[in-house]
Amino acid sequence: MNESVVLDKVTKTHGLVKAVDHVSLSIQSGEFFSVLGPSGSGKTTILRLIAGLDRPDQGDIVIQQRVVTLDPPHKRPVNMVFQHYALFPHLSVFENVAFGLRMKGESQAMTQKAVSQMLALVRLQGKEKRLPGHLSGGEQQRVALARALVNRPIVLLLDEPLAALDQQLRQEMQGELKRLQREVKATFICVTHQQDEALMLSDRIAVMQGGKVLQVGTPREIYDCPVSSTVAQFIGLSNVLSGTIAHCEDGLCRVEHEVLAPVKVVCSPHDSLQGAVTVMVRPERVHVSSDMSANGYDNMFTAIVHQVVFSGNEVVYHVRLRGEVIWIARVPIAEARARPLTVGQPVYVQWRAQEGLVLPAHSTPC
Amino acid sequence: MLNHRSDTSFAFPVKVSLLSAGLFLGLFFFLPLILVFGVSLASRGMYGGITWIVTWENYQRVFDPLVGMIFLRSLFLAGLTTLICAVVGFPLAYCLSRASKPWQLILLTLVMIPFWTNFLVRTYAWVLILRADGILNSLLIGVGLLDAPLSLLFTDLSVFVGLVYGYLPFMVLPLVVAIERIPPQLEDAAFDLYASMGGMFRHVLLPLSTPGFLAGGVLVFIPSLGAFITPYLLGGGQNMMLGTFIQQEFLVARDWPFGSALSFGLMGTVLLTWFLLGRMSVEKEPS
User: Among the CATH numbers 3.40.50.300, 3.40.1360.10, 3.40.50.2300, 3.30.450.40, which is that of A3-226?
Assistant: First the structure.
């Protein structure tokens, strides 16, 4: 596999703020790569730097083994799907999609053919003459995709591509994006603040905050082994406890909390951790029950059910541990039906040592 | 929907405001207009008075070739003024609309400041700049670029400079409004889709600024067509435009009926331009 896009220690400052701070990324060709982060984390700036709409203050950008740091946008084999699509409101769907080809000076016949093919690929045949304002959100999204992809970019940049769509359309378009990527065989770099989107779509994810990349990895790696509590909290819901490591032996740590009894956790992968740490447990790994079913759980706390949230295929229990600590447990609907819990009921909260993760208390970028 | 309105009468405050607006327009707009029209059908008396003999002769005189020349000159100068205002105004309006908020306020204030001074005074300032021993000539001679002063004042050029100066803000402000409504992302999108600076301007900015150009065009063209102060002060007696010509007929030639007919001729020209511009903007509107 060869590298499609490489960012080498790229820094970009907007005024006094470092929007992107010494970021190095290498994105494989044909990969669906997501940059995930809260708003203001610098992820859109990364796209603009790759597109050439912004120039880095430091560092280099390499696309297909060619340094393009100083190239203007029209000299880069890259196209972008903008947030809110940025379709030209005065041009028809056809002319919007044809825009890039016309600017490149392609022949009329070639343009006609390529645009028709692309509109077929995004299933917009018959809407050529419409104006963008007369299309639904999903259709506008497809026009934006077609307008970028018709130029056969090596890299397609997507800025919050699904943010403006409603839930059902979003799920539909997620599948659509994967299908398009398989068909056009381009590298997709997608910026999003929605972790479920990133987890579902991506081959790899870079988690960003404050202009820095905190972690790069497959969705699985990021979900199961976040390097810091910041990453952990950004990807999926998680329960966290802060404490101090008392002692470690045989790969098992005891973490002391100021109110609760010590928590047992498996030490890896941060064996060298000492002092203040955060213990993280995913809500679906937390077992809540009204009796003490002692089948090998290493940690057990008493709690009171604080809130019960029904969400179709599962029930989410918010339980209050001692010291006002609220934990969340996600229970499959079948199990919740079999042993229902009600608000105010005393319960036992249990989990296995290997399901907790010890992380440094303060996030340190890797 | 309409019959819904017929069975509910307007509320009292609405009636009052409609009545007062109607009264105002009737008294200060339609009545004078009718009076001027009446005068335009009368004849000039021996000593400059009005003789009430109804005639179309004044309107026939509007189509006299000499008068036609003044019409054409006015149309040309007003058209050129509009064009130059558009060319000069667009970059200014663009910078204004894309500037950061505090800068935008400062720049807009700078555009508006001239309005705080009387137009007549500002036009006199141009006389001081342009006349033979004026600021511009002294400067050029002082620097050594000229040996003798250029005669700048009382030319078509000076009238034209005055008109552009006077009406530029009327082009800039509607353009600012139009450009502000164009998301900057569209410019990025054009660049991302291989457009050069010129291509982006021609295919994205220009078509999307059309409403601003049309509004600004109307606001500049119509007043400069009937401009009076500028051609009077900067054009002298020779370089007449419609405004100065009408004023002369009323006050110098004391031919009120012909002056009135000319006024209606000017109004007709303005309405025709308005109509044509309206047609243009309708055609621009995609069906």
Answer: 3.40.50.300
